[in-house]
């Protein structure tokens, strides 16, 4: 999209990192991958990934004279407007938000960290290294998922977690 071609090392990095993600997702078993079946939620997530890829590439097309915070504010407003119909449908079906200290704290956390700061850091990272390199860092999500599950849920990482994490870091290294 941006006239950038992958070098051999970059392509190898993408492959190695993606294979590390697959290793974690498949729990080290090709049979798990073979038995996967897509449901409606999976299809929504694939659509979301497609839009995220377009967003990432589109960051390069932001006019230089448009302040990044203004662009982010515009994206937030558009996102909120797009969510209004879903909120109306949920409210009409009788679902309501229960405002408790825990739910408010959760909403504040999600609103500040992943929804606001996450976008600022991601956009800045893409501006610094480009979409072709920055997007590969999304492969770190299973790494953080593994680490957070070990820290907060007491789960013990298995061999496939460690092997996948090593492959993801090696792939990112090769690509960058």
Task: Walk me through the structure.
The protein is mostly helical and about 180 residues long. The mean pLDDT is about 90. Helix content is about 75%, strand content about 0%. The two termini are about 20 Å apart. The longest helix is centred in the middle third of the chain and has 29 residues, at about 100-130. The protein has 8 helices and no strands. The radius of gyration is 19 Å and the shape is globular. Helix 1 packs antiparallel against helix 8 (about 160-175).
What's the gist of this structure?
With 176 residues, this protein is mainly α. The chain has 8 helices and no strands.
What is this structure's SSE topology?
Elements: H1 8-25, H2 30-34, H3 40-58, H4 68-92, H5 101-129, H6 131-134, H7 141-153, H8 159-175
Q: Unreliable runs, pLDDT <50, ≥5 residues?
A: none
What order do the SSEs take from the amino end to the carboxyl end, as H and E?
Answer: HHHHHHHH
Distance between the termini: 19 Å
- Bin the strand percentage: under 5%
Helical content class: over 70%
Number of helices: 8
Mean pLDDT over the full residue set: 91
Shape: globular
The largest sheet, given as strand count, sense and whether it forms a barrel, is: none
> What's the total count of β strands?
0
């Amino acid at each position: 999209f941006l006239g950038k071609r992958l070098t051999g090392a970059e392509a190898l990095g993408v492959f190695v990192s993606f294979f590390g993600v697959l290793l974690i997702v498949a729990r080290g078993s090709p049979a798990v991958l073979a038995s996967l079946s897509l449901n409606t939620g999976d299809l929504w997530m694939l659509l979301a990934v497609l839009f995220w890829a377009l967003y990432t590439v589109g960051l390069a097309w932001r006019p230089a004279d448009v302040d990044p915070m203004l662009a982010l504010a515009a994206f937030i407003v558009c996102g909120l407007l797009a969510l209004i119909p879903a909120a109306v449908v949920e409210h009409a079906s009788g679902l309501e938000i229960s405002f408790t200290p825990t739910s408010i704290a959760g909403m504040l956390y999600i609103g500040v960290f992943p929804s606001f700061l996450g976008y600022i850091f991601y956009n800045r990272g893409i501006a610094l290294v480009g979409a072709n390199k920055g997007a590969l860092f999304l492969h770190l999500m299973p790494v953080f998922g593994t680490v957070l599950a070990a820290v907060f849920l007491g789960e013990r990482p298995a061999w496939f977690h460690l092997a996948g994490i090593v492959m993801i870091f090696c792939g990112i290294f090769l690509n960058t």
